[in-house]
Amino acid sequence: MSHLVVLTGAGVSAESGIRTFRDGNGLWENHRVEDVATPEGWHRDPETVLAFYNERRRQVRAAQPNAAHRALAALESDGFRVSIVTQNIDDLHERAGSRSVLHLHGEILKARSSADPRLIYRLDEDQEIRIGDHCDRGSQLRPHVVWFGESVPLFPTACELVAEADLVLVVGTSLAVAPASGLVNEADWHVPRILVDPAAAELTPAGITAMTTSATEGVSQLVDYWRQHRRLELPDFLAD
To answer: Where does substrate bind (predicted)?
Structure first.
């Protein structure tokens, strides 16, 4: 069975109303990134960090999957093998119906031990993380996300998935920024690679096909083509 591997980033979630981008001044939702998305920020002021992610969690729970999420899930339901490697920490791919989703940067709807990263807990509906919420070993719970300066433990698994791909689709993330920049090169040289992004014409390096559209428009168009032709290939409307 042909294998589609999809690398998704903030641009996909943004079309569902999730504000995930940092501003040009280095702030994220009016917070310094160093204060809310680094181990150092956590050690300085865990209460502020927890409050920040509790608010992000509320945003995710209020958001709904968009046409791009639904199209990828529909392709999988049609019998195609679809693996999604996402930099997003929301659960919109899963809620749309995708069954094979690897979260490179963690999952905001889970908590984990601040002492043992193997102790991971799914949060109940509307549940938040507060100071005094402890893991089974008695340590404070923290968001199950990868902060700046931390390793990305699932990166080797993501590399293995891309290496198995018959077609790689990149949506909503720049190929100039790691880890997508490295992941896309894990595929065999002959494997078609498509970048869907409003700025794809400027972002796309040699050997990768640009599709200069929004995530919802581009993914829906590609999936419609693959479902109609019953095979994964570079669509004729993108071929030179």
So the answer is: 53, 56
